[in-house]
Amino acid sequence: MENTRVAVQDEMRHIPLALIVPGKNPRRHFDPQKMGELVKSIRIKGVIQPVCLRPIGEKFEIVAGERRVRAALAVYGPEGEIPAIVKELSDNEAEEDALIENTIRDDMSVTEEARAAGKVLARCKGDRDEAARVLAWPMPKLARRLALLELTEEVMDALDERKIQTGHAELLATVPKEKQNSTLDKIIELNLTVQFCRDNLLRKATKFEGAIFDTGAGCPTCQYNSETQASLFLEHIGQGYCTHGECFEKKTAERLAAMKAELSEEFPTVRIIVPGDTASFTPLVADGNLGVGTEQYTACKSCGDFGATVSSLVNNLGQVTKSVCFNQVCYQKKVAERIKAEKGPDTPDKAKTETKDAGSTAKPASEKKTQKASASEVSQKVKEYRRTVWNGIAKREFARQPDKSRAFIFSLGASGDLNHVDRSKLKELFQKIAETPYPDSHAEGLVAVFGLPPEKLDKLASAMAVASVDKLTEKQVSTALDFLTADLAAYWRISADYLGLLTKSEIESVAVEVGLDTAMGESYKKALTGKKEEIIKALLAASFEWNGAIPKMLLWQ
């Protein structure tokens, strides 16, 4: 066999088949029947149309005509020769020529055209107009072929091998890739028709009509939007559907979470309702048979169990219910208290009977008790804030009341709670007050403490009580403050920091409770219409006697 070298210019040659190697052919599947027909034709007529090759060292790489090369090998063997146009081409030029030459032929499969279209589009840097021009395709065909690139390799191979129809592939292209292969297996195993697959996909699709998220952001051009699919494929499920259930559910969950976050500015507690949750809350109203009363309703707004719900249930997805109570036991109790207060101490019949008795002092039934309004619970934020305020006041009061400090420390010891005070902390306090280290032994320590002057013993007692505060329970701190007869109003007043912790409903409840709504008059309602930051600023700017205006949620028992 002659060792043929390639000329610099393009030329027609007869090239030995043994010197020809595969190139960058976009074709992946060669139909056996068509290959057989080509072999038969070459055996009778020979290779009529030259292949296109480029030189690679001592050999020649196929640019176009791999089917003819394969068929000629079957007829002539490696010793044979075929006509060829030999071109000097770079790697990129060779790949581009292969793509173009093959895509203009009629016998490429749709998957081969899809892969070729993807490569051409990449070469055109994503410019679809330019890719369509290079391929000499109308834009709709380019779009349809590119859409098929969403198929898995397994689905593409099944289509090339005629295991499924193009309609199957078009429907599968609208399904997330992670589900395509399992669906493909069922289609092949059960020999499912295209119509059956279409109907099944329609049943599993989700209507955009019921979406609570913004469907205008990304959805119109999404590959999983059935309207997009309808513009690309002959087989589709119609318009108005999403075929990516997981994405739809994710966006729905994100929107529900966003709605919850928005409502959390207004209500202490906001919950997303799932199946079974509807029994865990009840609408809270002031009036009617199931009302808690106007005053109590206002107080309930500052309760940690007051809030709103956002439904995730199918029938009322995204529905918001405001002013609900999540503590049904407390709610029923407040309703009962309201009913009792309205009836008064006596029933009408009993009151009539008592007024007939000589010397009776019974009150008329029209005189009613006043229901004591209160919130059953406060939010966690308020609890933490309140505890910080309480601790600070307790420490300052213990510091100035050594006699009560001694009593408190003794009480802790008698209750078994003196371990609240860390031993190393006590030694540190002693050294600071006595200006000498605490002795190592218990006996020496007694002598050292006993030897302190009265004023330092007072400081030591106060310091021990102060050191215990942070380790006490909330109830113990409350008891201590009551024992110390501390005055919250002397240390604290309503501020922006405090109001900033509250939701809008809690702010409104506090304002009504301290009488700020009455003091502000008509401007109060106007102030409540803004954002929370604006509401706080407007309320604090009001002409109002803030000293002594203490919300119940901050009081100790």
Write the layout of secondary structure elements.
Blueprint: E1 11-16, E2 20-21, H1 32-45, E3 51-56, E4 59-64, H2 66-76, E5 81-86, H3 91-103, H4 110-123, H5 128-135, H6 139-147, H7 153-160, H8 166-172, H9 177-190, H10 194-204, E6 206-207, H11 226-232, E7 241-242, H12 245-263, E8 269-273, E9 282-283, H13 294-300, E10 306-311, E11 320-325, H14 328-343, H15 348-356, H16 380-400, H17 402-414, H18 423-434, H19 442-450, H20 454-468, H21 474-483, H22 488-491, H23 496-501, H24 504-514, H25 516-520, H26 522-527, H27 532-540
Parallel strand pairs: 2-4, 3-5, 8-10
Antiparallel strand pairs: 1-5, 3-4, 6-7, 9-11, 10-11
Q: What this model shows, in words?
A:
It contains 27 helices and 11 strands. It has 557 residues and is an alpha/beta fold. The chain folds into 5 domains: 11-108, Conserved hypothetical protein from pyrococcus furiosus pfu- 392566-001, ParB domain (Alpha-Beta Complex); 153-247, no CATH class; 266-353 and 367-377, no CATH class; 380-486, no CATH class; 496-554, no CATH class. The protein has a 5-stranded mixed sheet. The chain has a 4-stranded mixed sheet with strand order 8-10-11-9, covered by helices on one side. Strands 6-7 form a two-stranded antiparallel ribbon. α18 packs antiparallel against α20. The longest helix is centred in the C-terminal third of the chain and has 21 residues, at 380-400. The chain starts with 10 loop residues before the first strand and ends in a 17-residue tail after the last helix. Mean pLDDT is 86; it is low at 1-8 and 349-370.
